[in-house]
Write a structure and sequence with these properties.
Elements: E1 4-14, H1 19-27, E2 32-42, E3 46-55, H2 60-69, E4 73-82
Antiparallel strand pairs: 1-3, 1-4, 2-3
């Protein structure tokens, strides 16, 4: 079975912990090489965030557990990459 290399998640999270704290917690997981969190929308009590995680052998269940343990939830998986190399999207005539 091929390893997960990249996950892009749409996450709803409370204002606390901060995105810095959440990024550090996710980055500490085994197999994670890097984490990027961007805020798309802020409400009074929650933030809608795009969470991008890259690594050699990502464990989805562990990632979701960290997010849930900190009051967040995954709304959708927006991108997944698996295999020996990462393949970037390219524009086609349909785009």
């Amino acid at each position: 079975m091929s390893n997960l290399r990249r996950l892009v998640l749409d996450v709803l999270k409370p204002l606390d912990p901060s995105i810095e704290e959440l990024a550090r917690l996710l980055a500490d997981l085994q197999g994670v090489d890097g984490v990027n969190i961007s805020i798309n929308e802020i409400d009074r009590r929650v933030e809608n965030a795009k969470v991008t995680i890259e690594g050699q052998n990502l464990l989805y269940a562990d990632i979701v557990a960290v997010i849930a343990d900190n009051g967040g939830s995954v709304h959708s998986i927006d991108e997944v990459a698996a295999g020996r190399v990462l393949i970037e999207d390219v524009d086609t005539a349909q785009d």
